[in-house]
Amino acid sequence: MATDTTPTGTLPEHAPRWKRLPVVHQLRTSVGLQRGMLVAGLVLTAVFVLTAVLAPLLAPYGWAQLRADGELFGSHVEPSSDHLLGTTVAGYDVLSRVIWGARTALYTIVIGVILSIVIGVTLGLLSGYFGGWLDRVLVVVADAIYAFPSLLLAILAAIVISGGQSSMWGGVMATAISITVVFIPQYFRVVRAEVVRVKGEAFVESARVVGAGHVRIMTRHVLRNAVRTLPLIVTLNACEAVLTLAGLGFLGFGIEPTAAGDWGYDLHKALADVTSGIWWTAIPPGVAIVLTALGVTLVGESLNDLADPRLRTRRRAALVAGEVGTTSVVPGGVLAAGPEGVDGLDALEGAPPEILPESEPVSGPEEDR
């Protein structure tokens, strides 16, 4: 019977496609603390995404709802069966505001990261492939933009777009545009460096020899080999997008409370409540910001560790029980000593040939010669 010699921790070529997906593959190959961090990050991120998607079903009230059954909620109502996390100073339900705030944060992440990827990857591909004056100009501009803090750009964008106080989409777009401008240099640098390395490979030169055009070479040969590290940057940028949106709302340049739920705005309005002993208006949005940022960061850091050979933890080889004798290559696989030890091998192969004693050399005519 043939023996499976596939190394531990590797996937055979016939493995299902879902096992080779980026996150699934890292989850299967991670061990110990790395697996714990990755699992914790995936759980927190999944809870955040599901809360945002299912907000209309999970939220007991609307984000700006002040009354139910014709009665006002009231200001600073303590947590109860009607309001599990109490109400704010303006009379909004805290739990509903937190749930709807997850959807606002998800909108910001998706729009900001997608815009950053499209623009940054395109510019990096063109700059690294063609080089010349275009490459020098784009590198200088990217370095200059990268020096601006994202929060300052978010404030400027919010003021330009809607005068500082905005609707939901105005605030989301202001934050998304600001983080897009800041994140573009990151994608640009990574893609440009990979394109410069890949365009000198033999398969790219072969494509040029057979007459392939620049567009085909960039899209079919260079691009697919230059974007392997982008998932790591996406997770880290998603965390920064959440913090930028929260900071914008905390400083008073975020989304109007009647337009959408905003964790930063709710945290800003709860500052005065903390000194009065009212804890339920500040802790829920603060915990939501921390857990969301922590979950996305754990995913990004775990993927980064698993992608770095110097930080990757290798799986330990399984211990083989029993005594293993001398092995040889046979058609059925590796031949090893069984429970009888080396004697079992001798019984299979037959008795060893007798070794003749070394005899004295015989002298003869040829010796005399």
CATH architecture of the largest domain: Orthogonal Bundle
Strand content: under 5%
Poorly predicted runs are: 1-13, 312-330, 332-337, 363-369
For the record, give the distance between the C-alpha atoms at the N and C termini, rounded to a whole number. Answer: 59 Å
- Evaluate the radius of gyration: 32 Å
CATH class of the largest domain: Mainly Alpha
CATH topology of the largest domain: MetI-like fold
| Total number of helices | 15
* Helicity range: 55-70%
Topology as a string of helices (H) and strands (E)? HHHEEHHHHHHHHHHEEHH
Largest sheet: 2 strands, antiparallel
**Number of structural units classed as domains:** 2
CATH superfamily label of the largest domain: MetI-like
Question: What coarse outline follows from CA principal-axis ratios?
Answer: elongated
Total strand count, please?
4
The structural class is mainly alpha
Question: How are the strands ordered across the major sheet?
Answer: 1-2
Mean pLDDT: 75
Please give a structural write-up:
This protein has 369 residues and is mainly α. It has 2 domains: 17-307, MetI-like (MetI-like fold, Orthogonal Bundle), CATH 1.10.3720; 320-354, no CATH class. It contains 15 helices and 4 strands. The protein has helices at 22-29, 32-53, 55-58, 94-130, 132-146, 150-162, 168-198, 202-209, 214-222, 230-250, 263-269, 271-274, 283-307, 342-349, 365-368; strands at residues 67-68, 71-72, 329-330, 333-334. Helix 2 crosses helix 13 and helix 10 packs antiparallel against helix 13. The longest helix is centred in the N-terminal third of the chain and has 37 residues, at 94-130. The relative contact order is 0.13. InterPro entries: BP-dependent_transpt_permease (IPR050366), MetI-like (IPR000515), MetI-like_sf (IPR035906). Keywords: Cell membrane, Membrane, Transmembrane, Transmembrane helix, Transport. Its main location: membrane. Residues 102-300 form the ABC transmembrane type-1 domain.
